[in-house]
Amino acid sequence: MGIRIKDIAEATGVSPATVSLVLNNRPGVGAETRQRILAMARTLEYDIDRSNNLTRNKEETIRFLRVSRHGHVVNNDHAIFISNYIDGLSQEARALGLNLEILTIQDGPIDAVIEAAQASRIGGSIILGTEFTPEEIQRFAEVRAPVVFMDTYDETACFNFVDMNNRESVFTAVNHIVAKGHREIGLVTSGVSTPNFKMRAEAFKAALSAQGLSYVKEDFFLVDSTFQGAYADMFAALSDRERMPTALFCANDIMAFGCIKALKERGFRVPEDISIVGFDNLPASAMLDPPLTTIEVSKFQIGKMALRLLFECMSEKQKQPAIKILVSGELVERSSVRDLASQ
Protein backbone atom coordinates (compact mmCIF):
# COMPACT_ATOMS: atom_id res chain seq x y z
CA MET A 1 0.00 0.00 0.00
CA GLY A 2 1.33 3.46 -0.88
CA ILE A 3 1.94 6.34 1.48
CA ARG A 4 -1.28 7.86 2.78
CA ILE A 5 -2.37 10.99 4.56
CA LYS A 6 -2.37 9.14 7.89
CA ASP A 7 1.33 8.28 7.50
CA ILE A 8 2.31 11.90 6.90
CA ALA A 9 0.17 13.05 9.82
CA GLU A 10 1.79 10.58 12.21
CA ALA A 11 5.28 11.48 11.02
CA THR A 12 4.72 15.22 11.49
CA GLY A 13 2.58 15.10 14.63
CA VAL A 14 -0.45 16.84 13.14
CA SER A 15 -3.97 15.74 12.27
CA PRO A 16 -4.86 14.11 8.94
CA ALA A 17 -7.14 17.09 8.26
CA THR A 18 -4.17 19.47 8.52
CA VAL A 19 -2.17 17.35 6.10
CA SER A 20 -5.08 17.32 3.68
CA LEU A 21 -5.36 21.11 3.75
CA VAL A 22 -1.68 21.44 2.90
CA LEU A 23 -1.64 18.85 0.12
CA ASN A 24 -4.71 20.47 -1.43
CA ASN A 25 -3.13 23.94 -1.14
CA ARG A 26 -5.91 25.15 1.15
CA PRO A 27 -5.62 28.01 3.65
CA GLY A 28 -5.73 27.58 7.43
CA VAL A 29 -2.26 26.16 8.13
CA GLY A 30 0.75 28.20 9.26
CA ALA A 31 3.76 28.58 6.94
CA GLU A 32 6.16 26.63 9.17
CA THR A 33 3.78 23.70 9.60
CA ARG A 34 2.96 23.75 5.90
CA GLN A 35 6.62 23.48 4.94
CA ARG A 36 7.21 20.70 7.46
CA ILE A 37 4.32 18.67 6.04
CA LEU A 38 5.44 19.16 2.44
CA ALA A 39 8.98 18.17 3.33
CA MET A 40 7.79 15.00 5.05
CA ALA A 41 5.53 14.17 2.11
CA ARG A 42 8.52 14.34 -0.22
CA THR A 43 10.68 12.33 2.19
CA LEU A 44 8.05 9.61 2.28
CA GLU A 45 7.74 9.83 -1.51
CA TYR A 46 4.10 10.82 -1.47
CA ASP A 47 3.21 11.82 -5.04
CA ILE A 48 1.90 15.35 -4.41
CA ASP A 49 1.85 16.45 -8.04
CA ARG A 50 0.07 13.36 -9.26
CA SER A 51 -2.63 13.15 -6.61
CA ASN A 52 -2.96 16.73 -5.35
CA ASN A 53 -5.68 15.61 -3.00
CA LEU A 54 -6.09 13.88 0.31
CA THR A 55 -6.21 10.36 -1.06
CA ARG A 56 -6.16 8.55 -4.35
CA ASN A 57 -8.68 7.17 -6.79
CA LYS A 58 -11.98 6.18 -5.20
CA GLU A 59 -11.18 7.91 -1.92
CA GLU A 60 -11.42 11.27 -3.67
CA THR A 61 -15.19 10.81 -3.73
CA ILE A 62 -17.65 10.39 -0.88
CA ARG A 63 -21.38 10.02 -1.04
CA PHE A 64 -24.21 11.56 0.97
CA LEU A 65 -27.22 9.28 0.89
CA ARG A 66 -30.42 11.25 1.47
CA VAL A 67 -32.69 8.37 2.37
CA SER A 68 -36.45 8.56 2.80
CA ARG A 69 -37.70 5.19 3.99
CA HIS A 70 -41.36 6.20 4.38
CA GLY A 71 -41.47 9.99 3.97
CA HIS A 72 -43.21 10.84 7.24
CA VAL A 73 -40.15 12.72 8.50
CA VAL A 74 -37.81 13.18 5.51
CA ASN A 75 -40.14 15.12 3.21
CA ASN A 76 -40.73 18.59 1.79
CA ASP A 77 -41.77 19.90 5.22
CA HIS A 78 -38.18 19.39 6.33
CA ALA A 79 -36.39 20.34 3.13
CA ILE A 80 -34.73 23.34 4.79
CA PHE A 81 -32.89 21.39 7.45
CA ILE A 82 -31.76 18.77 4.93
CA SER A 83 -30.38 21.69 2.93
CA ASN A 84 -28.51 22.89 6.02
CA TYR A 85 -26.97 19.46 6.46
CA ILE A 86 -25.83 19.51 2.84
CA ASP A 87 -24.34 23.00 3.23
CA GLY A 88 -22.21 21.77 6.13
CA LEU A 89 -21.14 18.66 4.24
CA SER A 90 -20.27 20.66 1.12
CA GLN A 91 -18.18 23.25 2.94
CA GLU A 92 -16.11 20.64 4.75
CA ALA A 93 -15.72 18.54 1.59
CA ARG A 94 -14.31 21.56 -0.25
CA ALA A 95 -11.94 22.32 2.62
CA LEU A 96 -10.60 18.76 2.56
CA GLY A 97 -10.42 18.45 -1.21
CA LEU A 98 -13.12 15.78 -1.44
CA ASN A 99 -15.72 15.32 -4.13
CA LEU A 100 -19.19 15.10 -2.61
CA GLU A 101 -21.93 13.16 -4.39
CA ILE A 102 -25.52 13.52 -3.25
CA LEU A 103 -27.79 10.59 -3.95
CA THR A 104 -31.49 10.54 -3.01
CA ILE A 105 -33.10 7.17 -2.33
CA GLN A 106 -36.85 7.42 -1.83
CA ASP A 107 -39.10 4.53 -0.79
CA GLY A 108 -36.37 2.10 -1.79
CA PRO A 109 -35.56 -1.21 -0.08
CA ILE A 110 -32.76 -1.25 2.48
CA ASP A 111 -30.72 -3.38 0.06
CA ALA A 112 -30.63 -0.44 -2.37
CA VAL A 113 -29.17 1.83 0.31
CA ILE A 114 -26.53 -0.75 1.26
CA GLU A 115 -25.59 -1.19 -2.39
CA ALA A 116 -25.17 2.58 -2.79
CA ALA A 117 -22.97 2.75 0.32
CA GLN A 118 -20.54 0.10 -0.88
CA ALA A 119 -20.13 1.25 -4.47
CA SER A 120 -16.58 0.44 -5.51
CA ARG A 121 -15.75 3.92 -6.78
CA ILE A 122 -16.42 5.81 -3.51
CA GLY A 123 -14.30 6.00 -0.39
CA GLY A 124 -17.13 6.22 2.15
CA SER A 125 -20.70 7.34 2.79
CA ILE A 126 -22.62 9.64 5.08
CA ILE A 127 -26.14 8.33 5.50
CA LEU A 128 -29.17 10.33 6.58
CA GLY A 129 -30.52 7.80 9.03
CA THR A 130 -33.57 9.73 10.26
CA GLU A 131 -36.13 7.12 9.23
CA PHE A 132 -34.03 4.00 9.87
CA THR A 133 -34.95 1.43 12.50
CA PRO A 134 -32.20 -0.04 14.72
CA GLU A 135 -32.55 -3.31 12.81
CA GLU A 136 -31.99 -1.56 9.48
CA ILE A 137 -28.89 0.19 10.80
CA GLN A 138 -27.42 -3.17 11.82
CA ARG A 139 -27.61 -4.28 8.19
CA PHE A 140 -24.77 -1.86 7.38
CA ALA A 141 -22.29 -4.21 9.03
CA GLU A 142 -22.16 -5.68 5.51
CA VAL A 143 -20.57 -2.48 4.15
CA ARG A 144 -16.78 -2.52 4.11
CA ALA A 145 -16.24 1.15 3.27
CA PRO A 146 -16.43 3.71 6.12
CA VAL A 147 -19.95 4.83 7.01
CA VAL A 148 -21.20 7.68 9.20
CA PHE A 149 -24.88 7.96 10.17
CA MET A 150 -26.31 11.43 10.59
CA ASP A 151 -29.53 12.59 12.28
CA THR A 152 -29.94 9.34 14.20
CA TYR A 153 -28.27 7.66 17.15
CA ASP A 154 -28.04 4.27 18.80
CA GLU A 155 -26.04 3.75 21.99
CA THR A 156 -25.74 0.01 21.43
CA ALA A 157 -24.85 -0.05 17.72
CA CYS A 158 -21.17 -0.20 16.81
CA PHE A 159 -21.32 2.48 14.09
CA ASN A 160 -20.30 6.11 13.72
CA PHE A 161 -23.07 8.60 14.53
CA VAL A 162 -23.39 12.39 14.48
CA ASP A 163 -26.68 13.60 15.90
CA MET A 164 -28.24 16.30 18.04
CA ASN A 165 -28.18 15.84 21.80
CA ASN A 166 -31.86 15.07 22.16
CA ARG A 167 -31.84 14.46 25.90
CA GLU A 168 -30.03 17.66 26.80
CA SER A 169 -32.15 19.70 24.40
CA VAL A 170 -35.45 18.38 25.75
CA PHE A 171 -34.32 19.07 29.31
CA THR A 172 -33.57 22.64 28.21
CA ALA A 173 -37.08 23.00 26.75
CA VAL A 174 -38.88 21.51 29.75
CA ASN A 175 -36.82 23.51 32.23
CA HIS A 176 -37.78 26.68 30.38
CA ILE A 177 -41.48 25.82 30.52
CA VAL A 178 -41.23 25.08 34.24
CA ALA A 179 -39.32 28.31 34.85
CA LYS A 180 -42.28 30.12 33.32
CA GLY A 181 -44.47 28.71 36.08
CA HIS A 182 -46.08 25.73 34.32
CA ARG A 183 -46.72 22.54 36.27
CA GLU A 184 -49.06 20.72 33.88
CA ILE A 185 -47.04 19.96 30.75
CA GLY A 186 -48.10 17.58 28.00
CA LEU A 187 -46.18 15.90 25.19
CA VAL A 188 -46.97 15.84 21.48
CA THR A 189 -44.96 13.28 19.55
CA SER A 190 -45.40 11.06 16.53
CA GLY A 191 -46.66 7.55 16.04
CA VAL A 192 -43.97 7.26 13.36
CA SER A 193 -41.10 5.46 15.07
CA THR A 194 -37.73 7.18 14.73
CA PRO A 195 -34.79 7.16 17.16
CA ASN A 196 -34.94 10.93 17.59
CA PHE A 197 -38.64 10.96 18.47
CA LYS A 198 -38.15 8.06 20.86
CA MET A 199 -35.26 9.77 22.63
CA ARG A 200 -37.21 13.02 22.94
CA ALA A 201 -40.20 11.25 24.47
CA GLU A 202 -37.98 9.43 26.97
CA ALA A 203 -36.13 12.64 27.80
CA PHE A 204 -39.41 14.49 28.31
CA LYS A 205 -40.52 12.03 30.98
CA ALA A 206 -37.11 12.18 32.66
CA ALA A 207 -37.12 16.00 32.59
CA LEU A 208 -40.54 16.11 34.26
CA SER A 209 -39.34 13.71 36.94
CA ALA A 210 -36.23 15.80 37.55
CA GLN A 211 -38.52 18.78 38.15
CA GLY A 212 -40.66 16.80 40.58
CA LEU A 213 -43.58 16.72 38.14
CA SER A 214 -45.72 13.77 37.13
CA TYR A 215 -46.18 12.45 33.63
CA VAL A 216 -49.91 12.42 32.92
CA LYS A 217 -50.88 9.82 30.34
CA GLU A 218 -53.96 11.79 29.30
CA ASP A 219 -51.68 14.68 28.28
CA PHE A 220 -49.77 12.51 25.82
CA PHE A 221 -50.81 13.22 22.21
CA LEU A 222 -49.77 10.95 19.37
CA VAL A 223 -49.96 12.63 15.96
CA ASP A 224 -48.55 12.19 12.49
CA SER A 225 -45.22 13.93 11.84
CA THR A 226 -46.42 15.83 8.75
CA PHE A 227 -48.14 19.20 9.07
CA GLN A 228 -51.50 18.11 7.69
CA GLY A 229 -51.37 14.83 9.59
CA ALA A 230 -50.49 16.52 12.89
CA TYR A 231 -53.29 19.03 12.39
CA ALA A 232 -55.89 16.36 11.61
CA ASP A 233 -54.84 14.09 14.48
CA MET A 234 -54.74 16.89 17.04
CA PHE A 235 -58.06 18.31 15.85
CA ALA A 236 -59.64 14.88 16.38
CA ALA A 237 -57.99 14.44 19.79
CA LEU A 238 -59.42 17.74 21.01
CA SER A 239 -63.01 16.85 20.17
CA ASP A 240 -63.86 15.46 23.61
CA ARG A 241 -61.25 17.09 25.83
CA GLU A 242 -62.61 18.58 29.04
CA ARG A 243 -59.24 19.75 30.30
CA MET A 244 -55.83 20.53 28.82
CA PRO A 245 -52.41 21.05 30.35
CA THR A 246 -51.16 24.64 30.45
CA ALA A 247 -48.25 23.80 28.11
CA LEU A 248 -47.27 21.32 25.42
CA PHE A 249 -43.81 20.25 24.29
CA CYS A 250 -43.89 19.14 20.64
CA ALA A 251 -41.22 16.73 19.39
CA ASN A 252 -40.63 18.90 16.31
CA ASP A 253 -41.75 22.19 14.81
CA ILE A 254 -43.88 20.61 12.09
CA MET A 255 -46.02 18.89 14.69
CA ALA A 256 -46.16 22.15 16.65
CA PHE A 257 -47.42 24.01 13.56
CA GLY A 258 -50.19 21.47 12.98
CA CYS A 259 -51.17 21.42 16.66
CA ILE A 260 -51.38 25.20 16.91
CA LYS A 261 -53.71 25.29 13.92
CA ALA A 262 -55.92 22.60 15.50
CA LEU A 263 -55.91 24.28 18.92
CA LYS A 264 -56.99 27.61 17.45
CA GLU A 265 -59.78 26.01 15.47
CA ARG A 266 -60.98 24.31 18.65
CA GLY A 267 -61.10 27.67 20.42
CA PHE A 268 -57.83 27.59 22.37
CA ARG A 269 -55.63 30.68 22.45
CA VAL A 270 -51.84 30.36 22.21
CA PRO A 271 -50.24 31.17 24.60
CA GLU A 272 -53.06 32.59 26.75
CA ASP A 273 -54.80 29.22 27.20
CA ILE A 274 -51.99 26.85 26.30
CA SER A 275 -48.27 27.38 25.68
CA ILE A 276 -46.32 25.57 22.97
CA VAL A 277 -42.61 24.73 22.55
CA GLY A 278 -41.21 23.04 19.44
CA PHE A 279 -37.94 21.50 18.29
CA ASP A 280 -35.87 22.35 15.16
CA ASN A 281 -36.22 26.14 14.76
CA LEU A 282 -37.46 25.90 11.20
CA PRO A 283 -37.61 29.34 9.48
CA ALA A 284 -41.43 29.39 9.67
CA SER A 285 -41.19 29.24 13.48
CA ALA A 286 -40.31 32.93 13.62
CA MET A 287 -43.24 33.87 11.36
CA LEU A 288 -45.90 31.90 13.18
CA ASP A 289 -48.68 33.63 15.14
CA PRO A 290 -47.44 33.70 17.84
CA PRO A 291 -43.76 33.17 16.99
CA LEU A 292 -42.74 29.75 18.28
CA THR A 293 -40.33 29.10 21.15
CA THR A 294 -38.23 26.17 20.00
CA ILE A 295 -34.90 24.35 20.17
CA GLU A 296 -32.19 25.17 17.63
CA VAL A 297 -29.53 22.59 16.79
CA SER A 298 -27.05 23.55 14.09
CA LYS A 299 -27.66 21.20 11.19
CA PHE A 300 -24.77 22.92 9.39
CA GLN A 301 -22.41 21.95 12.22
CA ILE A 302 -23.70 18.39 12.27
CA GLY A 303 -23.01 18.15 8.53
CA LYS A 304 -19.47 19.47 8.93
CA MET A 305 -18.70 17.11 11.79
CA ALA A 306 -20.09 14.10 9.94
CA LEU A 307 -17.90 14.88 6.93
CA ARG A 308 -14.82 15.37 9.11
CA LEU A 309 -15.49 12.12 10.97
CA LEU A 310 -15.83 10.21 7.71
CA PHE A 311 -12.58 11.71 6.48
CA GLU A 312 -10.78 10.60 9.64
CA CYS A 313 -12.16 7.08 9.20
CA MET A 314 -11.00 7.00 5.59
CA SER A 315 -7.51 8.09 6.65
CA GLU A 316 -7.05 5.14 9.01
CA LYS A 317 -5.31 2.02 7.76
CA GLN A 318 -7.21 -0.20 10.15
CA LYS A 319 -10.78 -0.11 11.38
CA GLN A 320 -11.10 2.08 14.45
CA PRO A 321 -13.61 2.02 17.35
CA ALA A 322 -16.95 3.61 16.54
CA ILE A 323 -17.32 7.31 17.40
CA LYS A 324 -20.60 8.88 18.50
CA ILE A 325 -20.92 12.68 18.45
CA LEU A 326 -23.82 14.64 19.95
CA VAL A 327 -24.28 18.33 19.21
CA SER A 328 -25.98 20.49 21.85
CA GLY A 329 -29.07 22.55 21.15
CA GLU A 330 -30.05 26.04 22.29
CA LEU A 331 -33.40 27.46 23.30
CA VAL A 332 -34.78 30.14 20.96
CA GLU A 333 -37.25 32.04 23.11
CA ARG A 334 -40.15 33.73 21.37
CA SER A 335 -43.70 34.39 22.53
CA SER A 336 -45.53 31.04 22.44
CA VAL A 337 -45.01 30.39 26.15
CA ARG A 338 -47.10 32.27 28.71
CA ASP A 339 -45.21 33.49 31.78
CA LEU A 340 -47.27 32.23 34.69
CA ALA A 341 -44.45 32.72 37.19
CA SER A 342 -44.75 36.51 37.12
CA GLN A 343 -48.53 36.54 37.52
Summarize the structure.
Helix content is about 40%, strand content about 15%. The chain has twelve helices and twelve strands. Strand 1, helix 5 and strand 2 form a beta-alpha-beta unit.
Share of helical residues: 25-40%
| CATH first level of the largest domain | Alpha Beta
Give me the strand/helix succession. HHHHEHEHEHEEHEHEHEHEEHEE
Shape: elongated
Descriptive report:
This protein is α/β, with parallel strands linked by helices and 343 residues long. It folds into 3 domains: 47 residues, 434 Repressor (Amino-terminal Domain) (Orthogonal Bundle), CATH 1.10.260; 138 residues, 3-Layer(aba) Sandwich (Rossmann fold); 132 residues, Rossmann fold (3-Layer(aba) Sandwich), CATH 3.40.50. 39% of the residues lie in helices and 17% in strands. The chain has 12 helices and 12 strands. The strands form 3 sheets. The chain has a 6-stranded parallel beta sheet, with helices on both faces. Strands 7-6-8-9 form a 4-stranded parallel beta sheet, sandwiched between helices. It is elongated, with a radius of gyration of 23 Å. About 2% of the residues have low confidence.
Compile the SSE list and pairings:
Layout: H1 5-12, H2 16-23, H3 31-43, H4 48-51, E1 61-68, H5 79-96, E2 99-106, H6 110-117, E3 124-128, H7 134-138, E4 147-150, E5 160-164, H8 166-179, E6 185-190, H9 195-210, E7 220-223, H10 227-237, E8 247-250, H11 253-265, E9 275-277, E10 294-296, H12 299-315, E11 324-327, E12 330-332
Parallel strand pairs: 1-2, 1-3, 3-4, 4-5, 5-11, 6-7, 6-8, 8-9
Antiparallel strand pairs: 10-12
Helix pairs in contact: 1-2, 1-3, 5-12, 8-9, 10-11
